[in-house]
User: Fold this.
Amino acid sequence: MRSSLISNRYLIVLLAALLLSATQLFAGSAFVTKGSKAASLDSCVAPTDVMRRNHMDFLQHGRDDTVIDGIRGLDYSLSECVDCHAATDVSGKSMPVDAEGQFCQECHGYVAVSPACFQCHRTTPDAKANKYGNHSDKSFLVGPVSQPAGIQRD
Amino acid sequence: MSKKSDQPSMDRRQFIGGTVAAAGAVTIAPGVILHAVAGSNEQTEGASSEHRWGMVIDANKCADGCSACVDACNNEHELTDLGRPETDAAWIRTVKLKDKQTGNISRLPVMCQHCEHPPCVDVCPTNASFKRVDGVVLVDRHRCIGCRYCMMACPYKARSFIHEALTDQSVYAPRGKGCVESCTLCVHRIDEGVMQTACQEACDKAGHGAILFGDLKDPNSEISQVLKKYNSVQIRGDLELNTGVRYRNL
Amino acid sequence: MSKMYYRELYCGSPTRFWAGLALLGTIIAIGLGAAYYMEHQGHWVTGMSNQIVWGLPHVFAIFLIVAASGALNVASIGSVFGGPLYKPLGRYSGLLAIGLLAGGLMVLVLDLGRPDRLIVAMTEYNFKSIFAWNVILYSGFFAIVGVYLWTMMDRSVSKFNRPVGFVAFFWRIALTTGTGSIFGFLVAREAYDAAIMAPMFVIMSFSYGLAFFIITLIAAYIWGDREIGDLRLTRLKNLLGVFVGAVLYFALAYNLTNLYITQHHGIESFILLNGGVYTQMFWIGQVLIGSILPLFLIYSPAFDKSRWAIAAASVAVLIGGFFQIYVIVIGGQAYPMNLFPGKEVVESGFFDGVVASYTPTFPEAALGVAGIAVALAMVAVGARVFKVFPETLEDPND
Assistant:
């Protein structure tokens, strides 16, 4: 009993030391990747520590809202993570967020977690994005939606 | 909907984090709550059972040699042609038919028929194949295990299995290796209030107007009017699946 | 009746045992490598496509799963139906059933598009899906047969043997009904739209399972230099003959029904007359090798008690059974679905109206064979560790 208490104490000291070094590691490094849109903003959609700790829950919640219930434009959306956090290289081309040294991979590599998101979701901002996001602009369609010009239905 | 979390409460963690940070004489920038990024898109209301989305396709207007709808679908959802037709995804295809008795030729596009009683949903072991409240049949790729039983069950051969790793997907159609997929009735457009599918848009632009998308539950919608006025059929109507996609002149 | 003693099966030569196990291990390793290759590349490297969505791995998996439930029959006859001659074979029957099911499930799972999401299949159930039921039936089978084996091997719980045996018997019937029903309720496909699939799979399981049992039993007793009497083998042989005949009868009933329904004439002429490789597999594989040859070997007086004939008949049943499942699974998909009755498809962007081609590739076959190797390896290790086989199976004197 006594010995286990002692070892527990050692464990706590060890954990505290680890936490300290981890805090310093991240405090010394930038939270965002240089050259990404996020680098120019004060904060993410929620405080950084909230995002760090809970982003996976936010995304998992949001994915069911969107896929099953069809709710789009959520505050926590993976495509916005990518839009904001993807850095561009010297030629101005976006770099995949899951590439070595990029935003997602930097942390997930450190904690040895492999995000499954990007087996299906794209890893760079989509040039075609927001084609439908702006509800008022439907100019890309031919004529009024209800009755396309020059089309005889019957 | 509340989400279970295995994480300790944030307040406690912030306290500990702050204490440790102070002990280490590290300055952490104060968490400023800003919704600077959020809100660039307003949140949409989502699918509603007030609607049932469907299409009516006029086989007489489907022009020989035209592939506008197929190209538009492939472009809209970034379905890349890898030069392997047996394994490449096909959400929409054109079929040319000849009546065995009379020799009459007809041509039509075939895609997921968005059944009211979809066999793919019945057989899916994990509920990945599902029907939205507005009648759109979809695959939730977060749950799909790639067993392909839905492909065995679908009477329309509407589904494709993704046979290879993909990159640069459309932001509107996330898709990846090992899952099954099919026509989504351009659900990303529906959700944003755009009442026209990519295939209809292309068919109209090509001047054929063979495809008409709309709300089957709204008696005043154009599609309901057309279906009321003219005779139409369902493919494999004998199966009583009550498809959302109907055909005229077939 | 003299008392039965069970003992761990020690091979006459240790080298033979370890070499055999190493061989099986190598086959399993190649199969796992093949599975990794297929998953990593995606399924385009296999013969499977959007037309033939289930390929050779599924043939192996279904074959093994069906055989697994049939292998348990011998134990059921012993403890449920009171056949004293079969009772000493019960333990091995249970062990073989577990081994075959494990092999089959391994193949099935490793061929999923996303085997990494197996946990989703374990936690998300759509109870309208027969697949979801099968997940429960398959995992339950392991547990129930495990308990069944325990009641057979531990004298202190042997009083539960009979009730547990009953549960196991009904569970295995449910399992094969579930497996057959995978194909029985696909309304859109002409080959599969038949409720007879479920009972046919049950009787197929009786036949394949018993064939697996006989051939491995003979092999084990040669392997372990033990004696096995003619009486039991003749009983098993006669039982196999009945099952083979029953499978043939069900195949006849299935095809005759389809021949009556005009709508199904297309698929029937495809399987019976002009389906190329599928027609050959049906007539040569399923009917000739899988039914007529074993029936001749079993019932011809010329081979009265010949062990060679019994073993050959069992192997022929297994080969024929493999072809039967191949014809059901792949032949049924290769025949085009009829979306437009009365119309002929002139052009299609997605292979409508044409017979789908399927050429199995090496990785698929390697994965399937690895499933059989897993089953055999589990049996070999299980028989060595547990007291599964009676010391001798010589004919009782009384």
